[in-house]
Each structure stands twice: as C-alpha cells, then as structure tokens.
C-alpha cells in the first residue's frame, strides 16, 4: 500500500462519531455476495473490507454472509430475510442489482453496483469510473484547463474505455487525441495519459504542469512523474483507516483489490450509519473511497485527488 505521512487529510465524520455509536439492538445485516464464480475474488476482498471495518467500529449486530452464486435474488431473499433482518449489503453483479430492484424489497438494500433503474429502498454504491472522471475534471477546471490532449496506450485502450468515455462526456472544453506528447503547451492546455505504469514511465519530456492520469496506472510504492495528478480512493495513500491496512496485512493483494477493501469498509460504514440515522435524510463522511454524501437514499462518492511532488504525494 502507498502511504505518505505528509498528506494532510484527516478522516472526519459529520453528524455522528465512530466512538459514540450505539447499535440498534438485535439487528441482522445480510451480506449477499458470490463465494464462487467469476466475481468470487472481488467479493472476497469486499467481504474482508466489510469484516475489518465491522470489527474496528465495534459493531454488535449479527452479520450474515450468504453465497449468491448461481442463485436468483428471489430465492436469496426468500430463504434468508426474516423479521430480524434490518438491511442487506449487496448484490454485486449488475444483473442481480437489476433483479433485486424489480423485486421491490421491503428491507433497505445497499447494492454494490449501479444500474439505470431505481427503487427508493435500494441505495446504489460503486467505484464508478464516472465519479473518478468527475473528480479529475474538477481538478482540471481548478487548473483552468480549456483544452485537453489525450494520449492513449494502444494496448490498454479497451481497459481505459469507460474512463475515456466518462472524461469525453463530462469535460466542457476542447479535446484532442494525440499520438505523442505535444511539443509545446500553453497554460490553458492539459495532457491526460491513459495507459499503464510502465508505459507512462517510459515517456520522455512530460510537462510538469496540467499533467493527469487515471489512478489505475498507479503501482504500489513506485515513483510517479513530478506534477502528475490523479484521483483515487484515499485509503490507499493515507494511513487514516487502520481497518483497510489490517485487511491488506491479512491478505496482501494488488491495488485493484486494495480498493475493494476500502469499498467494503465504506459499505459497512454506510450501513451502520444508515441504520443508526434512519430518520435522517442526509449523511456525510470522509470515507475510505472518498467523500461520501447520502441524501434521500442516493449515495454520491467524490474521490480525492493527489499530485506527485517528486518526493511523494500531496492532496490537491
């Protein structure tokens, strides 16, 4: 995990304190995720993130994990929801989220993916590329970038497609695709690099101003070009969330799965705060995956942006 003691970003909870939480008595929470199949590894990381946050926050509720692989959501709910069930975390697959929304569950659900259809009793929480792109575009706007050059690595174009599309849709200025780093850039121009870490490191003569990349190019403990900015889940870079560190120590894994530890931890915190503040329509906290805002059962996440200063990372 990348940690930087110089980063000045502290975890704060608005509206409730972790140390003063009193859990609703006799509440059960179901976590419905696959233990086998193509999503098993991702689910395992999310579950470890949930479990370590659950322990760190001193929760007293009964937490029940249900394997959903090759099961319909109708069957999962029918077999596992009872009078003690206060909330459900999951499912993860988009088709399962759509199915559970169509079932119109009476128990509140925190789905771990986002789909087009909605239901007032189903909150949708994800590590959306749209959120990552929006945060980076905010950084570009703060830098007064009016024209954005995008330089892509051909081998990772498919992998970066969702992020590229999100940037293209949300950026309000001019976008130009290039095959090389522009020889000269003015103050109102920026350069977005879309490729893996090795590709970025071999590029020569990068600008030190208005230089951006996608967070997926970050590699654990590896140096980044000076001046480059990206937006990502803060718990990978800031040692404020001991539960995420504990999850990593229990199961060291690449950064993509470290993000899921953070995702699971925030899923648990949303669940606990939601049940304790069930009459409150708005909840805000600085979480492991970014700034979390919940209003009228809608979850919004704003990743934190970082800049490489040549010695480490700083929050922009």
Provide the descriptors you would attach to this structure in a database record.
5-stranded parallel beta sheet; 23% strand; single chain; 316 residues; 7-stranded mixed beta sheet; alpha/beta
Poorly predicted regions are 5-26
Helix content: 25-40%
- What is the average of the pLDDT values? 90
Q: Helix/strand/pairing class, anyone?
A: alpha/beta
**Beta fraction of the residues?**
15-25%
Give the number of helices.
8
Distance between the termini: 20 Å
SSE ordering: EEHEHEHEEHEHEEHEEHHEEEEE
Commentary on this structure:
The protein is an alpha/beta fold and 316 residues long. It is 30% helix and 23% strand. It is built from eight helices and 16 strands. The protein has helices at 40-56, 73-80, 94-102, 129-142, 161-170, 197-201, 242-250, 255-276, and strands spanning 13-14, 28-33, 62-67, 85-89, 109-111, 122-124, 147-152, 174-178, 189-194, 211-213, 228-232, 282-286, 291-295, 298-302, 304-308, 313-315. It has a seven-stranded mixed β-sheet, with helices on one face. Helix 1 (40-56) packs across helix 8 (255-276), helix 4 (129-142) crosses helix 5 and helix 7 (242-250) crosses helix 8 (255-276). Mean pLDDT is 90; it is low at 5-26.
